[in-house]
Amino acid sequence: MCIDCVKLNRRQLFSVAAGGLAATTLLGVDGFRSAARAKTTVTPDEALAKLKTGNARFVNAPDLCVADLAKTRTAAASGQSPWAAVLTCADSRVTPELIFGGMTLGELFVCRNAGNIADLGAIGSIEYAVEHLGCPLVVVLGHERCGAVGAACEVVEKDAHLPGSIGPMVEQIVPVARDLRGKEGDYIDNVVRENAKRSALKVIHSPIVEELMHHKKVQVVYARYDLDTGGVEFLS
Ligand SMILES: [Zn+2]
């Protein structure tokens, strides 16, 4: 099932309830408002184009990707109006502000955990970004040779047991790994792509996000980052 199909189904399911829910939620977290300033005027399509242009700059001319931090720190200190939210892996090589071409302070609203899992904290953070900060685009970004995904594959293939809280965390990727075991192609990479897709679907399952998508104020996409080339492949 593609993201558009889910969006359609959700729209049918929540067409009556979602408007009221979004309004209620807005009131419920009013205390967060002090962190926001005038929302961006960037559209979802423009935001996606900016990310693609930025990643092309990162791949082709990384020497140009230098953020003017002193200037932007001052400009962003009074509030934020990011134009893209990114849910990605905590992997130290997958830094959104860098791989999207040197984005600076106040531009990207970034949520990270091992395996870019759309858990409660990630979804709540994204809801805050799109509803309160006016973020027009959400990107779920998986990456090549993801360790968390690799661990989930080892749980499936070798019945691996992971220590501490790593096990329950990776358990959230294990259903994807189970579904793709034995499929054609690279096992881990197949799971990386599907895991990014399913995390994006979970984001869309948020009534707040769905309602904003229905009004074309928010777009949700998923992508894969190539560690070797630096390229981001948008998959939806
Ligand atoms: Zn990873």
Describe what this molecule looks like in 3D.
The protein has 236 residues and is an alpha/beta fold. The protein is built from 11 helices and 5 strands. The protein has a 5-stranded mixed sheet with strand order 2-1-3-4-5, with helices on both faces. The longest helix is centred in the last third of the chain and has 18 residues, at 187-204. The protein is globular and about 50 Å long. 39% of the residues are buried. It binds zinc ion. The site of zinc ion (ZN) has 8 residues, from helix 7. Residues 89, 91, 114-115, 143, 146-148 line the site of zinc ion (ZN).
Spatial sequence of strands, sheet with the most strands: 2-1-3-4-5
* Backbone CA Rg: 18 Å
Task: Give the overall average pLDDT.
Answer: 86
The CA-CA distance between the termini, in Å, is 12 Å
Task: Give the SSE layout.
Layout: H1 3-14, H2 18-28, H3 44-60, H4 69-76, E1 84-88, H5 96-99, E2 108-112, H6 120-131, E3 137-143, H7 147-158, H8 166-170, H9 174-180, H10 187-204, H11 207-214, E4 219-225, E5 232-234
Parallel strand pairs: 1-2, 1-3, 3-4
Antiparallel strand pairs: 4-5
Helix pairs in contact: 1-10, 1-11, 2-11
The structure holds zinc ion.
Zinc ion is lined by residues 89, 91, 114-115, 143, 146-148.
What would the keywords be for this entry?
236 residues, binds zinc ion, alpha/beta, single chain, 5 strands, five-stranded mixed beta sheet
